[in-house]
Design a protein that fits this description.
single chain; mainly alpha; about 475 residues; 26 helices
């Protein structure tokens, strides 16, 4: 089975190839060892390493310079949460111990991220001390004083290194799943591997943990394995909420192809996997487990959201309740639109197309758009629209926003007389416009399948098991 080469069908890839000898010819067989998947993995590793270097200036002073993290755009949540959420004392994220809770805030993330953050804290401390630190002595100190202590700063650097190595492995695994999803199109994953968004945001937080599960779920679905798909979606939902929305795409595909049983299997598997993943946290601290839900429900207009633009531009406070109601009404309407689109399309849409549209709708009206949220869309966008031009247009808006949010937080964009920075609003709106551009292209591909590069390249979805059995 021959692979579809991007220089044959992608105008941008074809133009770029002129610098290295032109498009792949008929006799070009490639290197025996450097298969497309291995090339994608290598480029992913290089891209991730560039992202680590980009954080170097903050790493050298352990994120101690308050302005440098914004001026150099090297901010990361990891060092601050290490001390701010009790990881420096290896406190279980869901403990209800009063002494711990009096000193530290509860982790506001789903359990998958909390487990990872807690586990890597153990590894970092062992790596730094070749043992364990004196936790009793630390418990006698104010929590906000830990960050500046030399021995804790050493642990913080190890913590970032351990997480970088782990997340680097996760990024490589994601690339593998993406390159294997479409059997004849492993090169499609190159737009993920060489993504500036991946380099810039991979170490801002732990979102890559959910990204790899989303990529794995799309791979499992392409192999006609609904049970595994559901398990991966459930684990993804236990790590970040948005992987749950993949079930909407699965529903549309199953309704179109009369595979209702597969949808039931995937949904049930997702529910069981989510419960199993959450159970240790819930049993050890139900109130702490609920913090993720209450924190997001009570949150107001925050960074990067259209709500922040409206609130600041109109100089009017918008209550969290109003944002909750309006955003969920919009998102519900958006999902209904994706359902109608999928059912009325000339051919059954691909899961990645439907999932991309649903997640994009959620992010457009979310209360916050942290810079690393671009990673939520990245694997789905790569599979939904594997064209360099469209990926570059979309990611240009994301890169602009990435720069603008740090400049805004560093107060480099504020007018001389103070007040809100209009350029930051422009960056938010441009980011949303670029996202809507990609949404429009994917919708066009769904309505006119001849424009879909994946279908054009000869890939079709695997038939249901019943059809094969017949």
């Amino acid at each position: 089975m021959s692979h579809v080469h991007p220089t044959h069908e992608d105008p941008v890839a074809r133009a770029l190839s002129e610098g290295v000898g032109g498009p792949m010819g008929r006799r070009g067989a490639g290197h025996r060892w450097w298969t497309p998947v291995r090339v994608v993995l290598l480029v992913t590793a290089v891209c991730f390493a560039i992202g680590m270097v980009q954080k170097q200036s903050c790493f050298e002073d352990t994120w101690g310079d308050g302005q440098q993290r914004y001026s150099h755009m090297c901010y990361s949540d990891l060092p601050y949460l290490y001390t701010g959420r009790g990881m420096a004392e290896r406190a279980w994220p869901y403990t209800d111990d009063e002494e711990v809770r009096d000193r530290y805030e509860v982790m506001e993330y789903p359990v998958g991220i909390s487990y990872w953050a807690w586990g890597t804290a153990w590894v970092a401390q062992v790596a730094d001390h070749l043992g364990v630190p004196d936790l009793a002595e630390r418990a006698a100190q104010p929590a906000d004083a830990l960050f500046g202590r030399p021995e804790v700063q050493s642990e913080i650097r190890w913590y970032v290194v351990v997480n970088a190595l782990g997340l680097g492995a996760v990024a490589l695994l994601t690339a593998w799943f993406l390159s294997r999803t479409h059997r004849r199109r492993p090169w499609d994953a190159m737009t993920y591997a060489a993504s500036p968004a991946l380099a810039l945001t991979a170490l801002v937080n732990w979102d890559l943990l959910a990204v790899v599960l989303v990529a794995a779920a799309t791979w499992a679905w392409s192999r006609d394995r609904p049970l595994l798909t559901g398990v991966l979606i459930g684990l993804g939902t236990a790590t970040k909420l948005y992987p749950l929305f993949l079930l909407g795409g699965v529903l549309v595909v199953c309704l179109r192809d009369k595979r209702v049983r597969d949808f039931v299997v995937a949904t049930a598997a997702a529910a069981v996997a989510w419960v199993v993943a959450d159970l240790p946290a819930y049993l050890s601290g139900p109130e702490q487990w609920r913090v993720f839900w209450s924190f997001n429900s009570e949150r107001g207009a925050d960074l990067g959201s259209i709500w922040l633009v409206v609130q600041q531009a109109s100089d009017t406070a918008i209550s969290a309740h109003t944002i909750n109601v309006v955003s969920w009404l919009f998102f519900g309407t958006w999902c209904l639109g994706v359902l109608v689109l999928g059912l009325r399309a000339p051919e059954t849409p691909r899961l990645a197309q439907l999932a991309f549209l649903v997640v994009a709708g959620f992010l457009l009206v979310n209360k916050v758009y942290s810079p690393q949220y671009v990673l939520w869309l990245l694997p789905l966008a790569v599979l939904a629209r594997p064209r360099w031009r469209d990926q570059l247009v979309w990611q240009a808006g994301e890169v602009l926003y990435f720069a603008a949010v740090w400049w805004y937080l560093g107060e480099y964009l504020a007018p001389a007389g103070g007040g809100d920075a209009g350029f930051y609003w422009v960056a938010i709106l441009l980011r949303m416009a670029c996202e809507l551009y990609l949404v429009g292209v994917v919708v066009r591909d769904v309505l006119r399948p001849a424009h879909d590069p994946v279908r054009e390249g000869g890939w079709v979805a695997p038939p249901p098991r019943l059809a094969r059995a017949g």
